[in-house]
Design goal:
The chain is mainly α. The protein has one domain. 71% of the residues lie in helices and 0% in strands. It is built from 8 helices and no strands. The longest helix is centred in the first third of the chain and has 31 residues. It starts with 5 loop residues before the first helix and ends with a helix.
Protein backbone atom coordinates (compact mmCIF):
# COMPACT_ATOMS: atom_id res chain seq x y z
CA UNK A 1 0.00 0.00 0.00
CA UNK A 2 1.40 3.38 -1.02
CA UNK A 3 0.51 4.96 2.34
CA UNK A 4 2.86 2.67 4.28
CA UNK A 5 6.05 3.94 2.66
CA UNK A 6 7.79 7.25 3.28
CA UNK A 7 7.67 8.00 -0.44
CA UNK A 8 3.95 7.22 -0.48
CA UNK A 9 3.28 9.64 2.37
CA UNK A 10 5.21 12.35 0.53
CA UNK A 11 3.17 11.72 -2.62
CA UNK A 12 -0.05 11.97 -0.58
CA UNK A 13 1.20 15.23 0.92
CA UNK A 14 2.01 16.51 -2.56
CA UNK A 15 -1.40 15.64 -4.03
CA UNK A 16 -3.40 16.93 -1.06
CA UNK A 17 -1.23 20.04 -0.98
CA UNK A 18 -2.06 20.82 -4.60
CA UNK A 19 -5.79 20.34 -3.88
CA UNK A 20 -5.63 22.85 -1.03
CA UNK A 21 -3.54 25.27 -3.08
CA UNK A 22 -6.14 25.21 -5.88
CA UNK A 23 -8.88 25.86 -3.33
CA UNK A 24 -6.93 28.76 -1.79
CA UNK A 25 -6.47 30.41 -5.18
CA UNK A 26 -10.20 30.13 -5.93
CA UNK A 27 -11.08 31.28 -2.41
CA UNK A 28 -8.87 34.34 -2.81
CA UNK A 29 -10.42 35.23 -6.17
CA UNK A 30 -13.91 34.88 -4.72
CA UNK A 31 -13.22 37.01 -1.64
CA UNK A 32 -11.60 39.79 -3.66
CA UNK A 33 -15.03 40.43 -5.17
CA UNK A 34 -15.73 42.31 -1.94
CA UNK A 35 -13.92 45.27 -3.54
CA UNK A 36 -16.66 45.36 -6.19
CA UNK A 37 -19.27 46.02 -3.51
CA UNK A 38 -21.84 44.14 -1.39
CA UNK A 39 -24.03 43.12 -4.32
CA UNK A 40 -21.13 41.46 -6.13
CA UNK A 41 -19.87 39.43 -3.16
CA UNK A 42 -23.33 38.50 -1.94
CA UNK A 43 -24.35 37.54 -5.46
CA UNK A 44 -21.30 35.32 -5.77
CA UNK A 45 -22.17 33.65 -2.47
CA UNK A 46 -25.79 33.15 -3.55
CA UNK A 47 -24.58 31.54 -6.76
CA UNK A 48 -22.45 29.06 -4.82
CA UNK A 49 -25.28 28.19 -2.45
CA UNK A 50 -28.03 28.16 -5.10
CA UNK A 51 -28.98 25.42 -7.57
CA UNK A 52 -26.09 23.02 -7.94
CA UNK A 53 -24.86 23.73 -4.41
CA UNK A 54 -24.12 20.01 -4.15
CA UNK A 55 -20.86 20.78 -5.99
CA UNK A 56 -19.91 23.18 -3.20
CA UNK A 57 -20.66 20.50 -0.62
CA UNK A 58 -18.62 17.96 -2.58
CA UNK A 59 -15.68 20.36 -2.83
CA UNK A 60 -15.78 20.91 0.92
CA UNK A 61 -15.79 17.18 1.59
CA UNK A 62 -12.82 16.73 -0.76
CA UNK A 63 -11.02 19.62 0.93
CA UNK A 64 -11.68 18.20 4.40
CA UNK A 65 -10.38 14.77 3.40
CA UNK A 66 -7.33 16.36 1.76
CA UNK A 67 -6.62 18.40 4.90
CA UNK A 68 -6.94 15.36 7.17
CA UNK A 69 -4.63 13.24 5.00
CA UNK A 70 -2.14 16.10 4.67
CA UNK A 71 -1.91 16.63 8.43
CA UNK A 72 -1.75 12.90 9.14
CA UNK A 73 1.03 12.37 6.61
CA UNK A 74 2.96 15.36 7.98
CA UNK A 75 2.72 14.06 11.56
CA UNK A 76 3.76 10.55 10.58
CA UNK A 77 6.70 11.78 8.50
CA UNK A 78 7.84 13.94 11.41
CA UNK A 79 7.69 10.98 13.79
CA UNK A 80 9.58 8.78 11.33
CA UNK A 81 12.26 11.46 10.95
CA UNK A 82 12.68 11.73 14.73
CA UNK A 83 12.90 7.96 15.15
CA UNK A 84 15.56 7.76 12.46
CA UNK A 85 17.56 10.54 14.14
CA UNK A 86 16.51 10.68 17.83
CA UNK A 87 19.52 12.80 18.81
CA UNK A 88 19.93 15.99 16.84
CA UNK A 89 23.42 16.63 15.59
CA UNK A 90 25.05 20.00 15.27
CA UNK A 91 25.03 21.46 11.80
CA UNK A 92 24.91 24.80 10.13
CA UNK A 93 21.67 25.87 8.54
CA UNK A 94 22.07 25.37 4.78
CA UNK A 95 21.73 28.38 2.56
CA UNK A 96 18.87 26.69 0.74
CA UNK A 97 16.78 26.77 3.92
CA UNK A 98 14.20 29.54 3.92
CA UNK A 99 12.03 31.09 6.60
CA UNK A 100 9.18 29.11 5.06
CA UNK A 101 10.94 25.76 5.40
CA UNK A 102 12.25 26.45 8.91
CA UNK A 103 8.80 27.43 10.19
CA UNK A 104 6.90 24.74 8.31
CA UNK A 105 5.83 22.60 11.27
CA UNK A 106 4.83 25.21 13.83
CA UNK A 107 3.40 27.32 11.03
CA UNK A 108 1.16 24.41 10.09
CA UNK A 109 -0.12 24.27 13.67
CA UNK A 110 -0.87 27.99 13.62
CA UNK A 111 -2.74 27.58 10.34
CA UNK A 112 -4.96 24.88 11.87
CA UNK A 113 -5.86 27.20 14.76
CA UNK A 114 -6.46 30.05 12.32
CA UNK A 115 -8.63 27.83 10.11
CA UNK A 116 -10.86 26.74 13.00
CA UNK A 117 -11.33 30.34 14.12
CA UNK A 118 -12.00 31.48 10.55
CA UNK A 119 -14.74 28.88 10.15
CA UNK A 120 -16.31 29.81 13.49
CA UNK A 121 -16.01 33.49 12.64
CA UNK A 122 -17.10 33.92 9.02
CA UNK A 123 -18.61 30.56 7.99
CA UNK A 124 -20.61 29.31 10.96
CA UNK A 125 -20.92 32.67 12.74
CA UNK A 126 -20.47 31.24 16.24
CA UNK A 127 -17.53 33.60 16.95
CA UNK A 128 -19.01 36.60 15.11
CA UNK A 129 -20.46 39.64 16.93
CA UNK A 130 -23.32 40.18 14.45
CA UNK A 131 -23.55 37.31 11.96
CA UNK A 132 -26.22 37.66 9.28
CA UNK A 133 -27.07 34.59 7.23
CA UNK A 134 -26.67 35.04 3.46
CA UNK A 135 -24.92 38.42 3.85
CA UNK A 136 -21.19 37.62 3.61
CA UNK A 137 -20.25 41.23 2.86
CA UNK A 138 -21.76 42.43 6.13
CA UNK A 139 -20.18 39.55 8.02
CA UNK A 140 -16.79 40.28 6.48
CA UNK A 141 -16.78 44.00 7.25
CA UNK A 142 -18.28 43.78 10.74
CA UNK A 143 -16.19 40.75 11.65
CA UNK A 144 -12.88 42.36 10.65
CA UNK A 145 -13.65 45.80 12.03
CA UNK A 146 -12.06 45.03 15.39
CA UNK A 147 -8.28 45.65 15.22
CA UNK A 148 -7.44 42.59 17.33
CA UNK A 149 -9.36 40.27 15.02
CA UNK A 150 -7.90 41.88 11.90
CA UNK A 151 -4.38 41.55 13.35
CA UNK A 152 -4.97 37.87 14.10
CA UNK A 153 -6.06 37.37 10.48
CA UNK A 154 -2.95 39.13 9.20
CA UNK A 155 -0.69 36.97 11.39
CA UNK A 156 -2.50 33.84 10.28
CA UNK A 157 -2.17 34.85 6.65
CA UNK A 158 1.59 35.30 7.04
CA UNK A 159 1.73 31.68 8.18
CA UNK A 160 -0.46 30.67 5.23
CA UNK A 161 1.76 32.51 2.77
CA UNK A 162 4.99 30.99 4.09
CA UNK A 163 3.51 27.50 4.24
CA UNK A 164 2.10 27.91 0.76
CA UNK A 165 5.42 29.09 -0.66
CA UNK A 166 7.32 26.07 0.58
CA UNK A 167 4.40 23.68 0.10
CA UNK A 168 3.71 24.60 -3.51
CA UNK A 169 7.28 23.88 -4.52
CA UNK A 170 7.60 20.80 -2.27
CA UNK A 171 4.36 19.33 -3.66
CA UNK A 172 5.61 19.59 -7.22
CA UNK A 173 8.97 18.15 -6.19
CA UNK A 174 7.30 15.20 -4.41
CA UNK A 175 5.33 14.44 -7.56
CA UNK A 176 8.43 14.72 -9.77
CA UNK A 177 7.30 17.90 -11.52
CA UNK A 178 10.03 20.12 -10.05
CA UNK A 179 13.73 19.50 -9.59
CA UNK A 180 15.52 20.12 -6.27
CA UNK A 181 17.33 23.45 -6.27
CA UNK A 182 19.68 25.03 -3.70
CA UNK A 183 18.42 28.49 -4.65
CA UNK A 184 15.02 29.44 -3.17
CA UNK A 185 14.61 32.13 -5.84
CA UNK A 186 14.47 29.42 -8.48
CA UNK A 187 10.91 28.59 -7.42
CA UNK A 188 8.99 31.23 -9.40
CA UNK A 189 5.65 29.40 -9.58
CA UNK A 190 5.57 28.82 -5.83
CA UNK A 191 6.58 32.44 -5.18
CA UNK A 192 3.90 33.90 -7.47
CA UNK A 193 1.14 31.69 -6.06
CA UNK A 194 2.13 32.34 -2.44
CA UNK A 195 2.44 36.11 -2.92
CA UNK A 196 -0.83 36.26 -4.84
CA UNK A 197 -2.80 34.44 -2.13
CA UNK A 198 -1.10 36.25 0.76
CA UNK A 199 -1.48 39.74 -0.69
CA UNK A 200 -4.98 39.09 -2.00
CA UNK A 201 -6.36 37.84 1.31
CA UNK A 202 -4.39 40.31 3.45
CA UNK A 203 -5.81 43.24 1.51
CA UNK A 204 -9.27 42.51 2.90
CA UNK A 205 -8.67 43.05 6.65
CA UNK A 206 -6.43 46.02 5.83
CA UNK A 207 -9.16 47.53 3.63
CA UNK A 208 -11.73 47.11 6.41
CA UNK A 209 -9.46 48.73 9.01
CA UNK A 210 -8.71 51.78 6.85
CA UNK A 211 -12.33 52.15 5.74
CA UNK A 212 -12.07 51.11 2.10
CA UNK A 213 -14.61 48.39 2.77
CA UNK A 214 -17.53 49.51 4.90
Amino acid sequence: MIWRSTLGKKIVMGLTGLIMIAWLVLHTAGNLQAFAGPAKLNGYSALLHGPGHELLLLSRVILLVALALHVLAAVQLTLLDRRARPVAYARKTPQAATVASRTLRWGGGLILVFLVYHLMHLTWGTAHPDFVEADPYHNLVVGLRRPGVALFYLIGLVAVGLHLYHGAWASLRSLGAARPTPNPLHRPVALVVALGVWIGLSLIPVAVLVGWLK
